[in-house]
Structure formats: C-alpha cells, structure tokens
Amino acid sequence: QVQLVQSGGGLVQAGGSLRLSCVASSRTTSSGAMGWFRQAPGKEREFVAAISWSGATIYYVDSVKGRFTISRDNTMNAQFLQMNSLKPEDTAVYYCAASPGGSIPTRRIRDYDFWGQGTQVTVSS
Predict the structure, then answer these.
(1) What is the pLDDT of residue 28?
(2) What is the 3-state secondary structure (H, E, C) of the chain?
(3) pLDDT per residue over 7-34, tens digit each?
(4) CA-CA distances (angstroms) from residue 79 to 33, 55, 74?
(5) How far apart, in whole angstroms, are the C-alpha atoms of residue 125 and residue 122?
(6) N or C: which end of the chain has fewer CB within 10 A?
(7) How far apart are CA 24 and CA 115, in angstroms?
C-alpha cells in the first residue's frame, strides 16, 4: 500500500519549469498538512514547502520563495509543486509528505507520517 505516489520531475535547463504531483491513496492520508522536501547529493533532506489542509497557510524555504508554488486539491487527495525559474542548486530528489491529523504546516521531517517515493529534479546550467 503506497500512501503517496509522486509524478513529474526530470531534466530541465536553468530558468525552466517543472510541476510535481503527489496523489494520496485516501482522503485520510491527505486530511492534514502536506509538504515537500528535497535532498541534494551529499546534503541532508531539507524542507521546501508546506500547505495546510485548507490552503490558507503556506510556508516556503527562503531559497524558493517567489519561484515555487505549492497547492493542493482535496477533491483529488493531491498536492502539487510548481517550480519556476529553476536553478542548478534546485537539483535534488524531491519528496512529498503528508501529516494527517492537523492542518498546520510543519518543517519537521518527524512530523510527517507518509512519504512519496521521491522524484529526481535535475537543473542544468
């Protein structure tokens, strides 16, 4: 039983765009906050963005503000990450995550109960 299934990602030149999708297996899985993390080679996994259940509260890491947009569609049990103006430093494996039980976004890895399989995003210069 895969709780979160990711799609999107790939190879793009600097300045390009990609859209990541993450579909939860059930309404319950996506009933709380959801978010995105990424892990670059040789780096620790870092917080990227998170969104409350209603979408009213959104947090981004400073490095992606103004370029990335997180959104969700609760009728589809899904969240999305639109990535524009991509930079080589955005290169990483991106993971979606879900934190059922509450709508407050969190940056802490341990607060998320379910994770996607990860998808590679590579940005060339």
Answers:
(1) 85
(2) CCCEEEECCEEEECCCCEEEEEEECCCCCCCCEEEEEEECCCCCCEEEEEECCCCCCEEECHHHCCCEEEEEECCCCEEEEEECCCCHHHCEEEEEEEECCCCCCCCCHHHCCEECCCEEEEEEC
(3) 999 999 999 999 999 999 988 888 899 9
(4) 10, 10, 8
(5) 10
(6) N
(7) 10
Which tokens in the block code for residue 113? 């109960």
Output Rg (C-alpha) for the chain, integer angstroms: 13
Distance CA 91, CA 111 (A): 24
Q: How far apart are CA 79 and CA 103, in angstroms?
A: 14
Cα dihedral value 30, 36, 41, 45, nearest 10: -80
Contacts of 21 (CB under 8 A, 6+ apart): 6, 7, 8, 78, 79, 80
Q: Are strands 33-39 and 92-99 parallel, antiparallel or unpaired?
A: antiparallel
